[in-house]
Structure formats: structure tokens, C-alpha cells
Amino acid sequence: KKTSCDYGPNDRVLKNIRIKDRVLSEAALVSLKSKQLDTSAISTLLYDGNVDFGESITNLDSCNVYIVNGKVSEKKLQVKIQNCAKRATVLSIKEVID
Predict the structure, then answer these.
(1) pLDDT-based confidence at 50, cuts 50/70/90?
(2) What is the pTM (predicted TM-score) of this model?
(3) Sign of CA dihedral 56, 13, 45, 62
(4) Using alpha carbons only, what angle is made at residue 11 by residues 91 and 20, rounded to the nearest 5 degrees?
(5) End-to-end CA distance of the chain
(6) What crossing angle do the helices spanning 40-48 and 9-18 adopt, rounded to 10°?
(7) Are 81 and 62 in contact (CB under 8 A)?
(8) How far apart are CA 40 and CA 63, in angstroms?
(9) pLDDT (tens digit, 9 = 90+) per residue, 25-41?
(10) How far is CA 91 from the centre of its chain?
(11) Which residue has the higher pLDDT, 10 or 73?
(12) Phi, psi of 32, deg, nearest 5
């Protein structure tokens, strides 16, 4: 039996984004390529990442914008995702340097 326990706000947001059609902006595609990553990096972040609710814009009427932070292939990434009713658009991907 496959069940999931997505009770916390972080898990609910990530799951909500994962189940939608996902589109990458041109800027996001260029950024992935320059970092030598593919779209599986986004999928990994949507399972293992953390939503930065302080930086996210969650009070919009239609499409909220979430900032997701996580580590993929030893790179710390920050992804900006516009989450609409039927589609999630990856707007940008940047590497975070400590």
C-alpha cells in the first residue's frame, strides 16, 4: 500500500507542485545547462527541498511563487517556482554560495 504523510506546510506545497504539469522558463533551461544539470535536479528538489516561506509570495489570488532550496549533485540550489492551478513554472535556478 503506497501512502504518503504530507502534513506539514513544506510537504504539502512540494507535493502540490510535483503533481502538476511542469514547465521550465528559458532562463531556467539556460541555468540548468550552465550548471551541467538536467530536469531531474528539479524533481530531486521537489522531493528533498525546503520551501522558504519567508521569501515566497503566498498571498496572491491566482499563482503563488515559491522559493525552494536544496542540494543536488553537491550544489546548493535555489529554485523559484510559480505555482498556478494547473501548471507549475520554474522561473529561475541559481546556485547558492555560502
Answers:
(1) very high
(2) 0.89
(3) negative
(4) 50
(5) 41
(6) 150
(7) no
(8) 23
(9) 999 999 999 999 999 99
(10) 9
(11) 10
(12) -60, -50
Determine the distance from the C-alpha atom of residue 54 to the mean position of all C-alpha atoms in its chain, rounded to a whole number: 15
**Cβ atoms 76, 93 nearer than 8 A:** no
* Sole residue written with cell 554560495: 97
DSSP string, 8-39: SHHHHHHHHHHTSEEEE-HHHHHHHHHTT--T
10 Å Cβ neighbour count for 13? 22
43 by DSSP, 3-state: which?
helix
Can you read off the three cell numbers belonging to residue 88? 507549475
Instruction: Look up residue 63 and give its three cell numbers.
Output: 499563482
Please name the helix (run of DSSP H) or strand (run of DSSP E) that holds residue 47, with its range, or none. Answer: helix 40-48
